[in-house]
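Reply to dn_fold:

You asked what the input looked like. This is it:
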Amino acid sequence: MKWWLKCMRNYVNFRGRARRREFWMFTLFNTLVYLLLLAVGLVLLGAVIYKSVAEGGDAAEHATAYTLAVAGLLLLVYGWMLATFLPGLAVRVRRLHDIGLSGKWLLGYYALYWVCFYWMSTSYMQFAEDGALEGLSGQQSVAAIWIVVRPMLLALALLSAAGIAAMCIGSEKGENRYGADPTAEIPAADAGDAECVTDRLT
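and this is what came back:
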């Protein structure tokens, strides 16, 4: 929790370095929150569906209830995404600094992601507009779409693997051009304990 709070406090700090533990603890906490929000949203949606089925009533009222439930879930998820966007971006930049890379690499990484998504969407739209799916069964349509989007999905998978691998690289030993080695820093509580031990020994 303390690592997540540290990232939130440094939400616009794009200088300095961040160790692996800081980044991955922040990512883990955010993932757990997303899963919790998803679980709560699904429970609420299930409750709405159960109530509407049990009580019967007008289909339009049911559609409104479903829409409100889904909108509430999306509001929670996107609200959390907005709240953690800048802290997440900042800690990624500091993590790159920690392994000796400029934060500009992140711009290139996201640009490649956008190119892959654009490539995939335009390829699918062109494929659909050409009428290639007409006359095909459901299974054949899925197979044809898979053939079209497979190269882009492979590129996205490789990009994701490269991003994860970069975040797993250990800190550069000693000070680099972005700051001191964060793994060499002693937390305040540990420093206090070390001073107490030193006092007892002396």
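The chain is about 75% helix and 0% strand.
Hope that clears it up.
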